[in-house]
Design goal:
Blueprint (H helix, E strand, L loop, with lengths): L6 H5 L5 H18 L5 H9 L3 E2 L35 E5 L5 E2 L1 H14 L3 E4 L5 E6 L4 H9 L17 E2 L14 H11 L14 E4 L14 E10 L2 E10 L11 E8 L3 H15 L10 H8 L1 H14 L5 H4 L26 H10 E3 L5 E6 L5 E3 H15 L3 E3 L5 E7 L3 H10 L14 E2 L13 H14 L13 E4 L13 E10 L2 E10 L4 H4 L4 E7 L3 H15 L6 H8 L1 H12 L37 H21 L3 H20 L10 H13 L12 H12 L6 H24 L7
Parallel strand pairs: 6-7, 7-8, 16-17, 17-18
Antiparallel strand pairs: 1-2, 2-5, 3-14, 4-5, 4-13, 8-9, 9-10, 11-12, 12-15, 14-15, 18-19, 19-20
Helix pairs in contact: 2-3, 2-5, 4-12, 7-9, 8-9, 16-18, 19-20, 19-23, 20-21, 20-23, 22-23
């Protein structure tokens, strides 16, 4: 038997069958799009739901115009030119609650080196992103991830995004209980679920182990779950405060309390009901009003609660709602070494002491600590990622977590090993102190790679970090633990609303020239799960932002009252007073006097927004039925390929599956509880659509639906190529009739 020559062949034994099938499907969809057999709107939503983005390319900042490295696997040479996109895009890798194994990190380091620019970027949703990836390479990239237990499915698009959670969960001193197993279970329950496929926009979920800390940030999520223990009849019962309708963006809104206590048994069914209500009633046309927060505001929390509880009673029982409760220990971490205290002579002086002060947190478990690895701008190189995985293998085992502030955690570090760990981090260029302080600036990709970026949030964050950390700008002690966050546009991916000092990228037209600016937002509350949003003060030229930070921090240090947080300080002195501090910095010199103001941080070219494009953070709304009909089209195409390969029985089976997919897509419009059992699909399709003549192939007298029923009853008794060819032809006719039915049902069938 010849040795495997492709990643598909090489990794087949290591990939879950359903994940392998999904990747094969996506590879087929790429081929169909290249042949113009799938329209761009549908393909865009398809690829986004697989984590594949288009991106802004080479604006002269992060990538500096350098082509991404290509270290070829032998099959690459046979692929020919990249034709689907003119330039590489981005791959978002979904990392549920930020947990990464050493093996997974090694694989992502390899992928970054072979398919990207050798940089792994940690996002504010605990994902990993690789930029400058060719779309034709993405199926193999997905296969290599799937072989180590990672899927990119629904990393973007109108779907449930990565479920985030407190990165200290399980080790925290203030948690009610470890939320990790619940975040894990909800992730895979909602992944690909029928009731999450009809959203008008994205849906974000976050878990927190307690109310007071910032780690979960539940207040600005569509669904925020805060761990809570209630005494019921003398017994401690686990559950969650259930918050809904939070969000940032151009219209920030705090989450509303839907239920004070939802038991662990009701977590999944209630969330399924919520998703169904959002899918049915959420805005579909006006994308700027399509998030859940707008539906909650429109209906009011009381009516929204009534609808969700009413929907909960209609749900078909599902054993997965509680199956996971039988093994809550499945996500438990096992430390590599016993816990040991730090030697007394290692606690004073030098770089280690500074790092320990800001980057080390004692665990609830005696003798262990959590060490934060500071990642400037959320970036680590492939070699640094491998160094981190090696350190995990040496000191902690598989206990790595990505954080929402774009760093990495090593959990379960024996305290006695902290000095050696820090020395190894320094050798890898990862030993910086300052995690969670003023210099640890959070930033979205901004104009570097995002099509919606207006101003260079990464460029600004890099400059602030350079001045505050590298150059050692004097920062008053009172201001050292403030948070700075930068967003490149109003979408607020940098979470600037909840920072002490936040910046939002905007543009101004001055004297006929575009000038990069940042809107200053002050007084956001990072604690209490992002408990409150800041106040907008005014737009400042980008090049003056470092001076703004210097003035604000100095004034806070000089004028604050004892123990006063920055938010309370801003509330006390007022918005007008803050504006007065920076009024002169809002002014802009003429182009002749200082042209540097007319370019952005990190890009010497004159600033423009002409290269902005249509944002890809959501994609077009494609209804569940339309996605199902598209799937049936693709399955017929695959059936034809199987027949061409001489696999008649498999071809007939795939063509039958295509008809079944189309029937289910249509029937679910009438029965939201429809399962995926073929007998049930056929029965419901007949009762709801055929017998009622909603599905009626007029010119064939019902022949196409009868052919499906006959195929189902016969058990797919097809023996030869001629019979398979007939099934494929009938399947195509059935799908054409399904499109007509969808139109009659009121759908815009344009697949």
């Amino acid at each position: 038997m010849p040795a495997p020559t492709t990643w598909k062949e090489r990794l087949a034994p290591k990939i879950r069958e359903d994940w392998a099938r999904e990747i094969d499907i996506f590879e087929t969809q790429i081929e169909l799009r290249q042949q113009d057999k799938i329209e761009e709107k549908l393909f865009a939503e398809t690829r986004l739901r697989r984590g594949v983005y288009g991106q802004r390319y080479d604006n002269g900042t992060r990538h500096n115009g350098r082509e991404a490295q290509k270290l070829p696997f032998p099959e690459r040479a046979t692929k020919g030119p990249h034709t689907l996109w003119d330039a590489p895009g981005m791959m978002r890798i979904k990392i549920p609650f930020g947990k990464i194994s050493a093996e997974q990190l090694d694989v992502m380091a390899d992928l970054a080196e072979e398919y990207s620019d050798a940089i792994l970027h940690v996002t504010t949703r605990q994902d990993i992103q690789l930029h400058f990836v060719h779309i034709e390479d993405s199926p193999d990239l997905m296969r290599r991830l799937a072989a180590v237990g990672i899927t990119t499915r629904e990393a973007c698009g109108n779907s449930v995004r990565n479920v985030t959670a407190c990165s200290y969960a399980g080790t925290c001193n203030t948690q009610a209980f470890d939320v990790t197993p619940y975040a894990n279970a909800l992730t895979f329950f909602l992944l690909g679920h029928d009731d999450t496929q009809d959203f008008g926009r994205k849906f974000k979920v976050a878990f927190s182990g307690c109310k007071d800390e910032p780690c979960g940030l539940t207040n600005f999520h569509d669904l925020g779950l805060v761990a809570k223990i209630r005494d019921v009849g003398g017994k401690s019962v686990r559950g969650f405060e259930y918050w809904v309708g939070g969000g940032l963006g151009s219209v920030p809104q705090p989450a509303r309390l839907l239920a004070e206590f939802v038991t662990e048994e009701e977590l999944m069914p209630l969330t399924q009901a919520l998703c169904r209500v959002f899918g049915r009633l959420g805005e579909k046309e006006n994308r700027s009003r399509a998030r859940l927060k707008f539906l909650v505001k429109k209906l009011g929390i009381d009516e929204f609660r009534r609808l969700v509880l009413e929907e909960r009673e209609k749900l078909r029982p599902d054993p997965r709602w509680t199956d996971y409760l039988s093994d809550l220990s499945a996500t438990e971490e096992r430390p590599k070494k016993p816990g040991m205290p730090l030697a007394p002579d290692a606690t004073t002086g030098g770089a280690f002491a500074a790092w320990r002060r800001t980057n080390v947190r004692q665990q609830a478990q005696s003798g262990y600590a959590v060490a934060t690895i500071t990642l400037p701008l959320g970036d680590m190189s492939s070699s640094q990622a491998r160094a981190i995985s090696d350190l995990a293998r040496t000191y902690t085992g598989d206990t790595l977590r990505a954080t929402v502030d774009q760093n990495m955690l090593l959990r379960w570090v024996p305290e006695a090993d902290l000095p050696a760990l820090h020395a190894a981090l320094l050798a890898a260029g990862l030993g910086e102190a300052g995690a969670g302080t003023l210099s640890d600036v959070t930033a979205c990709p901004g104009t570097d790679t995002c099509k919606l970026g207006i101003s260079s949030s990464r460029g600004l964050a890099g400059e602030l970090r350079r001045q505050l950390h590298v150059l050692g700008a004097e920062v008053p002690d009172a201001a050292k633990d403030l948070h700075i966050k930068c967003s490149g546009c109003f979408n607020a991916c940098g979470q600037h609303h909840v920072a002490d000092i936040g910046f939002l990228g905007v543009s101004r037209n001055v004297g006929g020239r575009r000038v990069p600016h940042f809107q200053l937002v002050v007084g956001g509350q990072w604690t209490e799960n992002a408990g409150a949003y800041g106040l907008a003060i005014g737009a400042v030229p980008s090049k003056n932002v470092p001076k703004v930070v210097e003035r604000l921090t100095r004034h806070y240090s000089e004028s604050r009252q004892e123990g006063e947080t920055y938010r309370r300080f801003v509330e006390r002195i007022g918005k007008k007073s803050v504006r007065g501090l920076i009024e002169d910095l809002i002014e802009l010199p003429s182009y002749a006097d200082d042209p540097s103001y007319y370019s952005d941080w990190g890009d010497p070219r004159e600033y423009t927004i002409d290269d902005m494009g249509v944002g890809e953070c959501a994609g077009e709304v494609v209804p569940f039925a339309q996605m199902g009909l598209a799937a049936s089209e693709r399955e017929v195409f695959e059936a034809q390929l199987l027949l061409d390969q001489g696999q008649a029985k498999d071809a007939a089976r795939r063509a039958y599956q295509a008809m079944l997919s189309a029937a289910r897509a249509l029937t679910r419009e009438k029965n939201a509880n429809l399962g995926d059992d073929p007998d049930e699909i056929i029965s419901e399709f007949k009762a709801r659509l055929v017998d009622t003549r909603l599905f009626w192939d007029q010119y064939a007298g019902g022949k196409f639906s009868q052919f499906l029923f006959g195929m189902h009853a016969s058990g797919l008794a097809v023996a030869d190529a001629e019979g398979a060819h007939e099934v494929i032809e009938e399947a195509q006719l059935f799908i054409d009739a399904a499109h007509q039915c969808y139109t009659r049902l009121g759908g815009a069938s344009s697949v």
